Amino acid sequence: MTDSPRGAARTEAIMRATLELGAEIGYAKLSIEAIAARAGAGKHTVYRRWPSKGALLMDSLLHLHRSSLDYPDTGDIVADLRTQIHAAVDLLGNPPFGPLYRALIGEAQHDPALAEALNERFIAPQTEMTLARLRTARDQGLLSPSLDLDLAMAVLSGPLYFRFLITREPLTHEYVDRLLQSLFDGMGAR
Amino acid sequence: MTDSPRGAARTEAIMRATLELGAEIGYAKLSIEAIAARAGAGKHTVYRRWPSKGALLMDSLLHLHRSSLDYPDTGDIVADLRTQIHAAVDLLGNPPFGPLYRALIGEAQHDPALAEALNERFIAPQTEMTLARLRTARDQGLLSPSLDLDLAMAVLSGPLYFRFLITREPLTHEYVDRLLQSLFDGMGAR
């Protein structure tokens, strides 16, 4: 979608208003009307661009945090994973991103189109960046050639999302480090 | 709460109607009015017992599936985990439980009281049963004394919930087996 400079500024203002208001009153109470008023836009302007509150929240979160999860490559795969996952849990574990991202995932459970968009636009690119970093390390001989990279991804991210969405236990750096250690040193199950 | 036999039958009818209607039309379209009508009860009867649609759905799911996830103990810890987790993914991956449980978790992201109740009444008891089974195996010398049981639980369940709630990839027995193998044989990261 191409915007005039004024259109782009308005779009940006609407997305900022979504995150601000969402942080203040929570997703459940958020309305398109209130967002439009905060942004100084008409509500039809908002509806013209976003079909639902969930779609607007997703755009707002992804647009305003797009550079937060870029992947480091210092040559040390364990250190880079640690840096990246620490940054991810700092984002997930704190406002404004954390509670609004949780609400977005909640909404996606009732809205398959939103779930698909979230996967395509956020989860899949994040996963692909991590897999690319793991592949590089494997090609450099830093990881075993037999390592199942998809499973490694799942073992690193699944437990964090389980805490985030289900048990709501804190997402700490220490927990990330335990997960990384279990992946790299094994869990000594037997 | 103590019920007369008639009260208990009515409660059961309301919970059955919730799951039936939920399976037919989906959680989003489900209303207390329609559930009451299907169960032949007044809607005030429903509201008197359940504060919200989410609370009613949770009771209905937990009551009607309460015996599905009992824990086997054949003496073979890997076989028992496999049996139990295969049963869990069969439940999660199929109607009526799967889509309604996904909707319940979605609702819990907007409703902290529901999230807490889900943890207390379903997640925590399930986790405790699995941990008890793992502890028995450890005490029998079948698992390493140094195994971090909480982390083992997280590595087994987190990736399944990640698929269930985020990527919506299929929950297959084959995937469960890969997770179990990674836990017991290590992932050979390096």
Rg of chain A, Cα atoms, Å? 19 Å
SSE order of chain A in H/E notation? HHHHHHHHH
Number of strands of chain A: 0
What is the average per-residue confidence, as pLDDT of chain A, rounded to a whole number? 92
Q: What oligomeric arrangement do these chains adopt? A: homodimer
Number of helices of chain A: 9
The CATH topology label of the largest domain in chain A is: Tetracycline Repressor, domain 2
Helix content of chain A: over 70%
Which CATH top level class of the largest domain in chain A fits? Mainly Alpha
Low-confidence parts of chain A, pLDDT < 50 over ≥5 residues? none
CATH superfamily of the largest domain in chain A, called what?
A: Tetracycline Repressor, domain 2
Major β-sheet of chain A, in short? Answer: none
Alpha carbon gap, first and last residue of chain A: 55 Å
What is the count of structural domains of chain A? 2
Write the CATH architecture name of the largest domain in chain A. Answer: Orthogonal Bundle
Keywords (chains A, B): DNA-binding, Transcription, Transcription regulation
Protein name (chains A, B): HTH tetR-type domain-containing protein
InterPro entries (chains A, B): Homeodomain-like_sf, HTH-type_TetR-like_transc_reg, HTH_TetR, Tet_transcr_reg_TetR-rel_C_sf, TetR_C
GO molecular function (chains A, B): DNA-binding transcription factor activity; transcription cis-regulatory region binding
